[in-house]
Amino acid sequence: MTPGDDGAGRQSGLSRRRLLAGIGGVGAVGMASGLGTGAYLADRETFADNVFGAGSVELIVNEEVTDGTFAVDVSDIDRGHGGTETFDIEVRTNPARVWLATDCPAAGDALADAIEVDVAVDRESVTDGYRPLAEVERELVAGERIDAGCLGPDDRVTVEVNWQLPGDAPDEVAGEATDLTFRLYAEQCRHVAEADAAASNPFADRVCEGSDDDCPACVEFGKADDIEAALAVGDVLPLTGLPAGVGAHDIEITAVETKADDEAIGAAFVLRAADGAPGPAVCAVEIKGGRGTERYEIDPAAPATGEVLFAPRKPDSDERHGISHIVVFVCSGDDGDRGDDSSDCVVCDDSAVSLASLDVRYRGDDASVTAVSTGGNTGGTLFEGTLTPGGAFTLFGSDVVRGGNAGNGNAGPDKLGPEVDITVDGGEPISLHVSCSEPLAVGTRFGDGDLFEVTGGTTTDGESLCDSEAI
């Protein structure tokens, strides 16, 4: 979970932090030499269908033969800072297939939950951009093949590890250290057909404890809206928009952060059923304030948030908006699976459908983001503010100005379209069609490097936007 802070500009105390990003390597050896080292790294005794040819393979990391670990020392990391380390992977003697894997995260490692990592192979992210370190470790523990059809002695694969500590990292990670260990495994390409290569991945069966289908899908459960400014501990807020067949649920406020005027800017809560029993496991929470939304991933999922979750900051300010509503997401199959309710959504691939709003999540580094309506003689600023990784905002059709630009025209129907231009730090505009003349769905990513992701939307008829599986 990545909570916010109180906006008071407190120092994080994270000086002299160390992130150890290791690359451990093992060369694939001839059949006569056995499989002992490889089996140890793969955490199993034998490799089914793993056939080695004669000869040997040497793995090279940054021009040095390796059979151990290379450490990256990152010092003085503080909120909003990060770094990059690059590893050039090569082989000698024989062409080889190469797999990359991580170890499981250590239990109770708060910094691993807070620090975010992006791992790229030849500049293509294998982690879908920045993700919490603990998530990256759980996902890559089963191995990722990184060569493109056998790595030859004259070839090279570059693994780039980027890390950053978000500006709203919790104080509790002060003084903590963590590590990210990558393991490499190489197998000769001779005598193993490419069609059979997948069976040679020695990491394929590795699963981290507590991560196997604990939360196969995180789905929207309900919303607490019309929140009073003076929110207090003990307040009970009923949830609306619950899945069909699910009884009444509410959230009970367990902690509150307020501004000087007592307006609530952050809250912690527990999800519960009408009879007071704990509700389903919460996997994510979105806090709306102003025109923006702050999303928090709850890992491990639980009925209580545990920590205070904050509304977004105001543009170019450390001050936060007051909370306007809270959206709760739960793990599917845990009283939160909507089942056939997905049929209630609307597919946006027909211009007869009009969108009233669109929820978008930002997946890049801290930046100033602006969204304006364009095309069809429209104008109007739909969003403007500073976003941190994972920050979200909503585009409202009611903000579109028709018949002119920059607010000089007449207000039209409360719908988006035909296009929105989004700029990051004043760069080249990223265009998105929002008129449904082209397919658009929850889960759609757009922009260079999938910088943005559509996370929700409503039509002018009040219906929800379907996800990409419905298109």
TrEMBL record:
Ranges where the DUF7467 domain occurs: 365-451
Regions crossing the membrane: 19-42
Alphabetical UniProt keywords: Membrane, Transmembrane, Transmembrane helix
InterPro entries per record: DUF7467, TAT_signal
Pfam families: DUF7467
Extent of the signal sequence: none
Keyword NAD: no
Protein name (database record): DUF7467 domain-containing protein
Source organism of this protein record: Halorubrum kocurii JCM 14978
Upper taxonomic lineage: Archaea, Methanobacteriati, Methanobacteriota, Stenosarchaea group, Halobacteria
